Amino acid sequence: MFEIKTLSIIIPAYNEGKTIHLILDRIKSTVLISNVKKQVILVNDCSKDDTEAAIQTYLQQNKDLPILYIKHEINKGKGAALHTGIEHATGDVIIIQDADLEYDPREYNLLLKPIVDGFADVVYGSRFMGGRPHRILFFWHTIGNKFLTLLSNMATNLNLSDMETCYKMFKTEYLKSIKFKESRFGFEPEVTAKVSKIPGIRIYEVGISYYGRTYKEGKKIGWRDGFRAIYCIFKYRFIG
């Protein structure tokens, strides 16, 4: 068994004024196993819409939810927002949560359980395993995700089914021991490559739901990020 007192939830936000209050409501209503408490770290990456106003309104109306709010004065990228969140995390375990509604906080317990039970140090939430709901969207996007996961697995000798998933949960000591460099979406292959190098690390995977959104609905990752991910897979596994 591994005692977890607090789960740090890191939320990078960029132009999410329409959904930020909804995801925070879901986090607030989620009851975690083993009486685990929540620390929400919300990093606004210099949004250009009304994200700032939406967050300030939420903070005023929901003082019972512990939220550490940090704002970047210039846009630095999702990875940079995560670096900021990791730096300020004080919980025993950290999970990454996008500010949209693609991932369901009510499934935190699925990822927590292997850690609480003493089996895992890191848990990935896979969109491609298990019998949970999965929105049907882009064929080539799915092929791209699976291709990147295959390359990552070849480089790390892991057998993940979804390296690019947002839902990654880590014991804090391991995540804070890593020096990160990627400021955009290259964070996903970078963290996977660097975690895989930690001696004796125990990585698990559980099936999760996925309520994907279209680019019209606000999806941000594009083909350029895919090429950067390929570069990162090999750079951080074999070079640095």
Task: Provide structural commentary.
With 240 residues, the chain is of the alpha/beta class. The protein has eight helices and seven strands. A seven-stranded mixed β-sheet has the order 3-2-1-4-6-5-7, with helices on both faces. Helix 1 links the parallel strand 1 (6-13) and strand 2 (37-44). The model has no long low-confidence stretch (mean pLDDT 91).
Gist?
With 240 residues, the chain is of the alpha/beta class. The chain contains eight helices and seven strands, in the order βαβαβαβαβαβααβα. The model has no long low-confidence stretch (mean pLDDT 91).
Name the features:
alpha/beta; seven-stranded mixed beta sheet; single chain; 8 helices; globular; 38% helix; 240 residues
Which percent range fits the helix content?
25-40%
Report the radius of gyration as a whole number of Å: 17 Å
Total beta-strand segments: 7
General form? globular
Number of helices: 8
Strand sequence of the main sheet, in spatial order? 3-2-1-4-6-5-7
| pLDDT averaged over residues | 91
Strand residue content: 15-25%
What's the helix-strand series?
Answer: EHEHEHEHEHEHHEH
SS-based structural class?
alpha/beta
Uncertain residue ranges: none
Q: Report the biggest beta sheet as strand number plus sense, adding barrel if it closes.
A: 7 strands, mixed
Roughly how many Å apart are the termini? 34 Å
